[in-house]
């Protein structure tokens, strides 16, 4: 099971202090980050499926990862993106 969003934020705040900024993390994706569910997202770049991950660093962003083992290129999620549905595993 993944760590909760609250645990993630607390850990990063202890690592990075005041520099850590969650303002780019769209709240509608928090439940899917925590659960690891596959979702379908509609955005300006089209409709895609994947799991929600998060970037590292002092100003993280949520990512839509096509597969569990994805590394590198992923779609950055923002507040304008919409979860269309949860996809069965």
In helices, the fraction of residues equals 10-25%
- The SSE string, one letter per element, is HHEEEEE
What does the overall shape look like?
globular
Structural class, please?
alpha+beta
Q: Which features would summarize this protein structure in a list?
A:
single chain; alpha+beta; five-stranded antiparallel sheet; 5 strands; globular
Characterization of this structure:
With 89 residues, the protein is α+β, with helices and mostly antiparallel strands. It has one domain. Helix content is 20%, strand content 30%. It contains 2 helices and 5 strands. Strands 4-3-2-1-5 form a 5-stranded antiparallel beta sheet. A hairpin with a 7-residue loop joins β2 and β3. The radius of gyration is 13 Å and the shape is globular. The mean pLDDT is 89.
Give a quick summary of the entry:
With 89 residues, this protein is of the alpha+beta class. The chain has two helices and five strands; from the N terminus they run H-H-E-E-E-E-E. A hairpin with a 2-residue loop joins strand 1 (38-43) and strand 2.
Question: What's the layout of helices and strands?
Answer:
Blueprint: H1 5-16, H2 30-35, E1 38-43, E2 46-54, E3 62-65, E4 75-76, E5 82-87
């Amino acid at each position: 099971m993944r760590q909760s969003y609250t645990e993630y934020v607390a850990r990063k705040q202890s690592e990075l202090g005041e520099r850590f900024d969650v303002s780019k993390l769209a709240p509608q994706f928090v439940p899917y980050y925590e659960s690891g569910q596959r979702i379908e997202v509609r955005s300006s770049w089209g409709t895609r499926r994947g799991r929600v991950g998060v970037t590292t660093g002092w100003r993280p962003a949520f990512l839509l990862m096509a597969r569990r083992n994805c590394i590198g290129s992923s779609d950055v999620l923002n507040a304008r993106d919409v979860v269309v549905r949860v996809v069965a595993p």
